[in-house]
Amino acid sequence: MSITREFFRHPMRTGAIAASSARLGGVMTAGLGIENAHSVAELGPGTGVFTEALLRMLPRDAHFTAVEINPHLAQELRGRFPSIDIAEGSAEHVATYVTMPVDVVVSGLPWTAMPAARQTAALNALCAVLSPQGRFTTFAYAHTAWAPPARRFARLLRSRFSVVERTSVVWRNLPPAYVYRAALPVRSGLDRYGQPASAAS
Question: What is the DSSP letter of 170?
Answer without folding.
Answer: B
